[in-house]
Amino acid sequence: MSDSSTLNHASRVLATVGYDLPADAALRRYLGNARSLGPRERRSISAAVFAYYRWLLWLDAKASSQKQVEQALSMGERFDGDPRSVKPEALAALAVPPWLKDEMTLSAEFLRNLQSKPVLWIRARPGTAARLAAELGDCAATPLAPDALRYNGTKDLFVTPQFHAGAFEIQDLSSQMVSHIAGPTPGQSWWDACAGEGGKTLHLADLLQNRGVVWATDRSVRRLEVLKRRAARARIFNYRTAYWGLEEERSHPASSGAGRTARLPFKTTFDGVLVDAPCSGVGTWRRNPHARWTTSQEDVKELSAIQASLLRGAAQAVKPGGCLLYAVCTLTHSETTEIASSFSASHPEFEPEARPLPGAPNAQAAGTQTASFFLWPQNLDANGMFVAVWRRKKP
To answer: How buried is 263 (Cβ within 10 angstroms: 0-12 exposed, 13-18 middle, 19+ buried)?
Structure first.
């Protein structure tokens, strides 16, 4: 496919993007209908669309969409060749929305990582990473997670025999690290409170070695159905699903956020509860650059109220002596440290529990353990996340 063909396809995708159809969904719809396109063409179109949003504010708004995509690809190539060719001041002004500086420190390293092409991470089943890497080829291991592989090849992994046999899941490194930080042990019961399509549910179930159970809940029935299909492919059966969403208290206006309560979907309690709450997704903006321009500071405020409610509700299901984890793929103060500090202050029955810092050379050394930490994308070459851990005190 010629360069002009890529530009034309990308232009057609961009014409369909809107508030109700973000760029990633528009791409899936377009490529799903373009059955004649091969894997290489699909990668080129996807890269062109994401480059457009990555370099959006540098582009000539008066030019045609094809010309703008061409400009974006050229900017990306020059940046990949020399990341310091764009000054940090320009990145802070043009690569992210203005409100972000009020919510986090915009380091040069973070901004440069944000403008680089994302890495594809996969998760092998426990103990099989070396064999899988040899079978797939173009894989590199990391000391940060025992089953994680960085895939550097060009195959369409979704059509490989290994994928259909359930030998691996496509899952970002930081998400894999969250499950290892949780550290479930065989025989325990866990609740993945905001399971989505089940990436962490399946990982927790694997770490339990089929001796224990993971309850997966979400406010989207569709996502839970996807989880079931993924579990069937991986032949994982030690999980259960249920619907769980916020309900409004009649005594408070729905718009306030403070009146939202997350009633428990069941009466049982768990050895561990993971609250991977819905968030602004700042930590995923490298992979999904369109979200930079559709997320507002007001969204952050509304989401932080939801996160606090979900965390309060889920905490009720932690057994005495049990573990509570809060994880979000964002980096804003309002959704991370402020949520953790507020919860600790209002829940004295939960004690922050220090865990080894991921990647620390000596996990027992002084200063390498903390109860909350950021997984910075520029350090991991992966999505950014925040994790906080508490232990419920025994009576």
So the answer is: exposed
- Count Cβ atoms below 10 Å from residue 46 Cβ, excluding itself: 19
256 pLDDT more than 70: no
Give me the domain span that covers residue 313. Answer: 173-392
| Burial readout 360-387 (b: 16 or more C-beta within 10 A, e: otherwise) | eeeeeeeebebbbbbbbbbbbbbbbbbb
Q: Give CA–CA dist 343/351, Å, rounded.
A: 10
CATH number of the domain within which 357 lies: 3.40.50.150
179 and 155 in a single domain? The answer is no
- Over 50: is that where the pLDDT of 212 sits? yes
What's residue 265's pLDDT? 85
pLDDT in tens, 224-245: 999 999 999 999 999 999 999 7
Angle at 201 between CA 301 and CA 349, to 5 degrees: 60
Q: What is the per-residue burial (b if ≥16 Cβ within 10 Å, else e) of 177-209?
A: bbbbbbebeeebbbbbbbbbbbbbbbbbbbbbe
Question: Would you say residue 101 lies in a domain?
Answer: no
Q: Which amino acid is at 370?
A: T
**CATH number, domain at 156?**
3.30.70
> Is residue 138 domain-shared with residue 9, that is, in the same domain?
no
**Per-residue pLDDT reduced to its tens digit, 53-99:** 999 999 999 999 999 999 999 999 999 999 999 999 999 999 999 99
Q: Which residues are catalytic?
A: 329
Token pair listed for 273: 């509860």
On whether residue 100 sits in a domain, the answer given is no
Same domain, 166 and 195: no
Q: How many domains does the chain have?
A: 3
Q: Read off the pLDDT band of 254 (50, 70, 90).
A: very low
262 and 151 housed in the same domain: no
pLDDT band of 266, cuts 50, 70, 90? confident
Q: Report the amino acid identity of residue 236.
A: I
Give the C-alpha separation, 272 to 228, whole Å: 21
